[in-house]
Amino acid sequence: MTGSLRPRLRVLVRYGRAAGEPDSYDLAVLAPEERRRARRFRQPHRGAAYAAAHATARRCLAERSGGTPEGMRFGRLACPGCGGRDHGRPVVESPETSWELSLSRSGAHWLFAAADGEPVGVDIEQVRPLELSDLGPAVLSGAEGEYLAGLAPELRHAAFMRCWARKEAVVKATGIGIEADLCRVEVQPWRDTPVVVHRAAGCTTSRWTVRDLPIAPDCRAALAVPAGTEPFLDLALPDRIPSDARSEPPVLTRT
Question: pLDDT (tens digit, 9 = 90+) per residue, 58-73?
């Protein structure tokens, strides 16, 4: 019996939608470079989303590592594809902690996830009109393209965004990010919680469980964690999210 038990994996997920200028409460805990970047966005709501996501990461991880939000130091691992450190998986450099993290933004929406002791990837995509005839072949596998082609036309954009969010969650978890060939990361949109095989040098995990996160009605979001773990979710949504965004039950189990 004990051999069938899967290790529990604690996963934090935080989501928000920004409006207006970056919040001073968030800016106060950011590093100087983060504050400068938040203010450089041409559209204020994008800067506000950046500040909120990074401030939330600092507060959540400080609470669990014994540090302070403003004292957290972040860096990046080298990208398994090109070796660059500007887009590898983000890591906490200090204080010492077992928590791994991932961040994503799309328009005014932002998403943060962290897992205790295992790599994690998260992505959010705002549903918007796209020219799928051009973008689809660059992102979808053959089977995924056939699946979308079989859907009613009015459903294809949202389904494409669902695929894209799943793929981005996986490649963020492996750390290869923008270097990945997304056509080769098949996320099986016809399944609720697929196990996706994706390997990257330096990442000990090659099989990922991918789960959709029903967070906001105009977005598609996904979480990737190592297959074989039993995740349980600490999910916090702001009170201002419309009630119809909460109509679906959480994909992961609350504790």
Answer: 999 999 999 999 999 9
In order of their start, the domains of the chain are: 2-237 (3.90.470.20)
Per-residue pLDDT tens for 123-139? 999 988 888 888 899 99
Two structure tokens written together for 114: 């962290």
What is the tens place of the pLDDT at every residue in 36-50?
999 999 999 999 999
Is residue 197 within 8 A of residue 188, CB to CB? The reply is: no
Residues 171, 216: Cα–Cα separation, whole Å: 22
The Cα-based distances of 19 to 9, 111, 247 in angstroms read 33, 15, 23
Query: How many of the other CB atoms lie within 10 Å of CB of 130?
Result: 15
Is the bond into 7 cis (omega within 30 degrees of 0)? no
In this prediction the pTM is: 0.87
Among the listed residues 129, 97, 128, the one whose alpha carbon sits nearest the alpha carbon of residue 114: 97
Token code pair at residue 191:
């399944």
* Res. 164: pLDDT tops 60: yes
